Amino acid sequence: MTSRKARQSAIMAIIAAKDIETQDELVSELRRQGHDITQATISRDIKELGLIKTLTVGNKYKYVTKETMDSNISVKLKNVVRESVISVVTANNLVVVKTIGDGASVVSAAVEQMALSETLGVVADKSTILIVCADARDASFVQKKINELL
């Protein structure tokens, strides 16, 4: 039986070295390395490690740590966001982002890639994004993070 710490270290090394799209792929990689692992254990490890899925350039998903999420937003996407956003304002627990033209879909994709735990949901039409947060403090934090992209 592999210790939890060793197994979780192996998981972090695997996702740093490879694009792992599913829990099954992660289980297979761990088993190749000699870890006796179950799907339920992997699911718990993913939650404990705070791993999230992000969309790659090839339109596939992969596991990453939440801490590295900001750096995973491509420079190109940051430039599109920077040039599309007109304003970012809060209203209580809501963040409203106004964009030029049809920029809301791209900007909302960037916001979702940021995987901010403070967001409860993101809705966009052509030029407006509504981000729902639990409270005004979370909304202010989300506004700050979006402004950091600008």
Write the SSE topology.
Elements: H1 4-17, H2 23-32, H3 39-49, E1 51-55, E2 61-65, H4 69-72, H5 75-84, E3 85-91, E4 94-99, H6 104-114, E5 119-124, E6 128-133, H7 136-149
Antiparallel strand pairs: 1-2, 3-4, 4-6, 5-6
Helix pairs in contact: 5-6
3D architecture notes:
The protein folds into two domains: 4-68, Arc Repressor Mutant, subunit A, CATH 1.10.10.10; 73-149, Gyrase A, domain 2 (2-Layer Sandwich), CATH 3.30.1360. Helix content is 49%, strand content 23%. The chain contains seven helices and six strands. It has helices at residues 4-17, 23-32, 39-49, 69-72, 75-84, 104-114, 136-149; strands spanning 51-55, 61-65, 85-91, 94-99, 119-124, 128-133. Strands 3-4-6-5 form a four-stranded antiparallel β-sheet. α5 (75-84) packs across α6. The relative contact order is 0.12.
Short description:
With 150 residues, the chain is α+β, with helices and mostly antiparallel strands.
Please supply descriptive tags for the structure shown above.
2 domains, alpha+beta, two-stranded antiparallel ribbon, 6 strands, 49% helix, 150 residues, Arc Repressor Mutant, subunit A, Gyrase A, domain 2, four-stranded antiparallel sheet
